[in-house]
Amino acid sequence: MMKILLIEDEAGLILTLTDRLQSEGFAVKSAADGESGLQLASTETFDLIVLDVMLPKKNGCDVCRDLRQKGIDTPILMLTAKGETIDKVLGLKLGADDYLTKPFEMMELLARIEALLRRAPHQTANNLAETFRFGDVAIDFRRAEITKNSQSIELSAMEFKLLQFLIENRGAVHSRDKLLDEVWGYDAMPSTRTVDVHVAWLRQKLEPNPKHPQFIQTVHGFGYKFVG
Questions:
Q1: Is the pTM of the predicted complex or chain greater than 0.85?
Q2: Domains and CATH numbers, the chain
């Protein structure tokens, strides 16, 4: 189920939009002011944010700017007052993906939402949130940072990509050829031995006992899988 964050201060509109979006199959959370909306958007993962410009405590343009400065690239649909062209231009310049002028038809809002979700590389249910933990290891995928027992761990770009793919698809067994295609890409043309070497490096850096891996496991005759 895709998650939408609604940042809007009109109680009636919050109720109406929440009911309709839920009936369309979305999970909806709402915030009635800019500060609480920014906090929610910064700490939870959403597939889309519907953001009003005119908000108490912090206006929508400032919320949009702060989210983009934090590196949060969730699609943002801004709601602007009728005729306020400056709000539309400013919102788009600050990183909003689309805007809709109040009052609007519900069908147009749904069409804009669907269009943004189609364009956005959204997470599936099998994917992961911005952070993930296993054993003594903590990963921040947004910042590409890994710690083990609170000590920073350095991974190469390909090690990180391989680890992220395995975690996103944890539980599934992946052949070496599949990992080459998904992580290195069709044009890279490394050998399947490259996968084995990178797996060995990941185990050395992250497993409690690299010789008896607990998380990055070998499935003999098939390939590798992540368990955790």
A1: no
A2: 3-119 (3.40.50.2300), 131-226 (1.10.10.10)
Amino acid at 209: N
Tokens of 131: 């952070």
CA distance 195 to 190: 9
Instruction: Compute CA distances 64 → 59, 92, 164, 179, 184, whole Å.
Output: 9, 9, 28, 36, 34
- Residue 134's nearest CA partner among 199, 207, 205 is 207
DSSP state of 182: I
- Whether the Cβ atoms of residue 20 and residue 46 lie closer than 8 Å to each other: no
Which of 77, 72, 55 is CA-nearest to residue 10? 55
Place of tokens 């009911």: 19
Which residue reads 């599949």 in tokens?
178
Give the DSSP letter of residue 122: P
pLDDT tens per residue, range 52-78: 999 999 998 899 999 988 888 888 998
